[in-house]
Fold this protein.
Amino acid sequence: MHAKALIDALAEPGAGERVRELDRSGRLTAWLPELEAGRGFAQPELHAYDVFEHSLAALEAADAVLGPGSAGTAFRDALGWVDFERWLGRMVYGVPLPALVKLGALLHDLGKPATATVVEGRLRFPRHGPVGAELAEPRLAALGFSEAAAAFVARLIRFHLRPAELVRNWPLTDRAVRRFVRDLDGEVLALMVVNLADGWATQGPRYTREHFRRHCTFANAVLARAWAATEPGEHEAPLVTGDDLIAELGLSGGRLLGAVLTSVRDAQIEGRVRTRSEALELARSVLTSLGAAE
């Protein structure tokens, strides 16, 4: 499968050049053919690049934010209360977290060519996030990513515009923030990296230090608001993870895994399960109920 080669290209700093080499060799769009539709696809004047180059620039921006250079240092400083290195060192469904976040940045606008429409003389891309997620998830699974890892990336694509919606509805209610956190399965920081990378790539060479400072401040504000709005139990480590449910229940991942995991996590937050064995027992019960409902 090609998933390993793509993960290897993305996991470490310098991912942008490695992915550009994959493109020059023809492998990138052979593996991810939906990207090809963005090559030469012009965007409104706000954007410095066409859809394809914007996608590569977003990957490079995410690589810079997650890496050890000046941008990464500034981002870490802005989020000084977050244990960034511990977060960055996580494995998510068997894949290094940085690889999945950078993949989300690369594919965040995958749905733009398919959704392009002219509204009142202006080019628009309605619902390109959800459409891109629907394109990406089966493609990544076909490349050899687990269904759970593909779903993780699809969430980043689907919701990459949600931070802008948060701004429009500011100040937020706790209920709205909790829904935001739940929709992302708690991966707010991953989404904010993709959001920052999108903004950086939109401006391209016009992107300034002041733009970056504002993006860092915004990411910090959203993370802090998400932390403050969640229930105390939501800050606790989960009793079971998606990998646990895959191993114990024989689930293959995807939406069914997400539904079971969400039910168990909610029960933990509410205090209805307090041990790993109780969480697994509930997961089996939920899985049986969902299977009966199909």
